[in-house]
């Protein structure tokens, strides 16, 4: 720990800029910067997001344009990732697919993590009957297989991209509720929660400012894993015709569509699968680093 | 001196599977403005519970807590929030009483933020002043609790309690988890602050030598009841209750060739779920009489404000 050096530079900062100290977020960033793996993960995610945004510029072909003369071609210079059974360029489709897949993955996890996290924190903090009620509801959701639950929700709400994300989000929600509740139970027993009450903090403030930040680690871990799950769940729903409608490119449905041609053209499944793996791996590594840098105790 | 805080017939029972734990059973005392009342007793006697009842971190089963004549125990949410500005608490464990995810400047400034005192920038300045007041360098503003030693952490806890300029602070074993060398520093700081800020303390501790050092008056608790209460010198030199006598005899004397007559109590503390009838101490009392097992002694003035609850003292 270079506390001496840091305090000194803080003092210097007061003198020069007139600004007193660095904000806590700056500290998190400083710690994250030291974690090379996390930076790589973050770089990959940023790159993928850029690809999704810039897909129209980067793609050599229209992802939905069929060309029956060029069906099931192997990867070549003109089609870097080959073509599918309709002669569509796989490279363009994988690039465009990142738009829907990343969108669905992040939004669905966002829905699950926010609502699940809040429900878990509320249950864990208040305990008693409210906790029991919330957790039994979560148990009911958990008892239904995730994909069937999602099918039921999309079925009820109607087929659309937004409903798909809501369905996947809700089907993931109980997991967040459970992990957050478990942490909240240990956090609420700590004296600093009592201390917050003693200085007049209301329950909402305690949940948002004390309970949730101290439950960050499991939320982040669960979320980074959840994105992959969400992409795959969305793919399964699309496969069943309840999500993204063909021919819209989306990694999950491309993965399952390539299944039929696995022997003749394994690259049809391989590249969308690789794309999903890269997202998941990058998110996991980044999530790990973020969790560590958000924890002041792990500061080196 | 006017009376600042008064507890009247305070009762706290915790329901458990086996019945009710009589943590605090009909406790009454008053604290004058500017004084320190020491509350001592062994662990589990209800002294910490009493402290927490006063700041209403736990709800009393019955009884009243009067702060400047207003009953804290029956206040509604809004009144209680206002009262919290005047009545504060310092916790025993400076390791768990500070949020590990918040830098100490944030922890100290939080009460100001909650009550909307000043702008963000003004609050930072106020936190600097508070930190200096408790002997912390403002340079530590962005340090996290785990980077500080126990003494500094406890100073953070004290600064947080002081932030709203309270009149009354419950010190719940504030030095028990610190090294002896640091205990003295924190005790001196508390005394210094008391003089400067005109504070009134309820000082909860199991350590008689600490309590003797800081208190004007001392109340001794046993199994949820106050058995004796007197001014600090009276309690130490004219100890009346057999339990207080045994407690005092257990304090080590830091001299080589002086021995004290030890009073060894037999048995353990009875269960607070089913406290013994009569005098709660009669099962272990070396001076018990027949009446002790049947009739509960009342806390009565034995002269000069020295209250004691013992049949023996009054020769019943």
CATH class type of chain B? Alpha Beta
Indicate the structural class of chain B.
alpha/beta
CATH class of one domain in chain A: Mainly Alpha
> What is the chain-wise order of helices and strands of chain B?
EEEHEEHEHHHEHEHEEHHEE
Number of strands of chain A: 0
- Total helix count of chain B? 9
Major sheet of chain A: size, sense and barrel closure?
none
Low-confidence stretches of chain A: 1-20
> So, CATH architecture of one domain in chain A?
Orthogonal Bundle
Poorly predicted segments of chain B = none
In DSSP terms (H or I, runs of 4 or more residues), the helix count of chain A works out at 12
Name its key features.
heterodimer; A: 300 residues; mainly alpha; MetI-like fold; 12 helices; disordered N terminus; B: 316 residues; alpha/beta; Rossmann fold; 8-stranded mixed sheet; 4-stranded antiparallel sheet; 9 helices
Report on the architecture of this protein:
The complex is a heterodimer of chains A (300) and B (316). By secondary structure, chain A is mainly α. Chain A has a domain at 105-275: Orthogonal Bundle (MetI-like fold), CATH 1.10.3720.10. Helices cover 73% and strands 0% of the residues of chain A. Chain A has helices spanning 3-17, 24-34, 36-58, 90-126, 128-143, 146-157, 161-188, 191-198, 203-211, 216-239, 251-257, 267-294. In chain A, helix 4 (90-126) runs parallel beside helix 7 (161-188). Chain B has 316 residues and is of the alpha/beta class. Chain B has one domain: Rossmann fold, CATH 3.40.50. Helices cover 29% and strands 23% of the residues of chain B. Chain B is built from nine helices and twelve strands. In chain B, helix 4 (120-133) packs across helix 5 (150-162) and helix 5 runs parallel beside helix 6. Chain B is globular, with a radius of gyration of 20 Å. Chain A binds chain B through residues 1, 3, 7, 10-11, 20-22, 24, 27, 190-192, 194-201, 205, 210, 213-214, 216, 294-297, 299, and chain B through 55, 57, 81, 84-85, 88-89, 91-93, 96-103, 105-106, 110-111, 114-115, 124, 139, 141-144, 146-147, 157, 160, 163-164.
């Amino acid at each position: 720990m270079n506390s001496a050096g840091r305090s000194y530079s803080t003092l210097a900062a007061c003198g020069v800029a007139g600004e007193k100290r660095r904000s806590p977020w700056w500290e998190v960033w400083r710690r994250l910067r030291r974690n090379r793996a996390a930076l790589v993960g973050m770089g990959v995610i940023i790159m993928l997001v850029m690809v999704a945004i810039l897909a129209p510029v980067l793609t050599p072909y229209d992802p939905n344009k069929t060309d029956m003369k060029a069906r099931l071609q192997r990867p070549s210079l003109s089609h870097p990732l080959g073509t599918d059974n309709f002669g569509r360029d796989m490279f363009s489709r994988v690039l465009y697919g990142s738009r829907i897949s990343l969108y669905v993955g992040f939004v669905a996890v966002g829905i699950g993590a926010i609502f699940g996290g809040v429900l878990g924190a509320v249950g864990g903090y208040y305990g008693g009957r409210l906790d029991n009620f919330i957790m039994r509801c979560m148990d009911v959701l958990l008892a239904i297989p995730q994909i069937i639950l999602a099918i039921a929700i999309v079925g009820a709400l109607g087929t659309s991209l937004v409903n798909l994300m809501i369905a996947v989000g809700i089907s993931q929600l109980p997991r967040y509720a459970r992990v957050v509740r478990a942490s909240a139970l240990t956090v609420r027993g700590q004296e600093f929660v009592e201390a917050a009450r003693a200085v007049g903090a209301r329950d909402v403030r305690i949940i948002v400012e004390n309970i949730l930040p101290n439950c960050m680690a499991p939320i982040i871990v669960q979320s980074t894993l959840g994105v992959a799950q969400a992409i795959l769940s969305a793919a399964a729903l699309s496969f069943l015709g309840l999500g993204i409608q063909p021919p819209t490119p989306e990694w999950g449905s491309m993965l399952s569509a390539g299944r039929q041609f696995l022997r003749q053209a394994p690259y049809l499944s391989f590249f969308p699968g690789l794309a999903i793996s890269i997202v998941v791996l990058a998110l996991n590594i980044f999530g790990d680093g973020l969790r560590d840098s958000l924890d002041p105790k792990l500061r080196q | 001196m006017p009376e600042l805080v008064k507890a009247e017939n305070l009762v706290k029972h915790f329901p458990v599977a086996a019945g009710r734990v009589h943590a605090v059973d009909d406790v009454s005392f008053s604290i004058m403005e500017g004084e320190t009342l020491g509350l001592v007793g062994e662990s589990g006697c209800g002294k910490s519970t009493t402290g927490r009842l006063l700041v209403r971190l736990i709800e009393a089963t019955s009884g009243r807590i009067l702060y400047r004549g207003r009953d804290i125990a029956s206040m509604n949410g809004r009144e209680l929030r206002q009262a919290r500005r005047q009545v504060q608490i310092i916790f025993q464990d400076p390791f768990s009483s500070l949020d590990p995810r918040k830098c100490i400047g944030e922890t100290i400034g939080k009460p100001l933020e909650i009550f909307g005192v000043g702008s963000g920038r003004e609050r930072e300045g106020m936190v600097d002043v508070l930190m200096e007041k408790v002997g912390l360098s403002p340079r530590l503003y962005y340090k996290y609790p785990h980077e500080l030693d126990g003494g500094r952490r406890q100073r953070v806890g004290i600064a947080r309690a002081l932030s709203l300029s309270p009149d009354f602070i419950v010190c719940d074993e504030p030095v028990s988890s610190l090294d002896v060398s640091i205990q003295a520093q924190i005790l001196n700081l508390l005394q210094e602050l008391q003089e400067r800020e005109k504070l009134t303390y309820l000082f909860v501790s199991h350590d008689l030598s600490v309590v003797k050092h800081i208190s004007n008056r001392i109340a001794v608790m046993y199994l949820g009841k106050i058995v004796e209460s007197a001014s600090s010198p009276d309690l130490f030199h004219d100890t009346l209750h057999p339990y207080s006598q045994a407690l005092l005899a257990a304090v080590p004397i830091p001299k080589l060739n002086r021995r004290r007559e030890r009073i060894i109590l037999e048995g353990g503390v009875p269960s607070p779920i089913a406290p013994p009838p009569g005098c709660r101490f009669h099962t272990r009392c070396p001076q018990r009489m027949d009446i002790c097992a049947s009739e509960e002694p009342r806390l009565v003035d034995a002269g000069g404000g020295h209250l004691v609850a013992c049949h023996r003292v009054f020769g019943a």
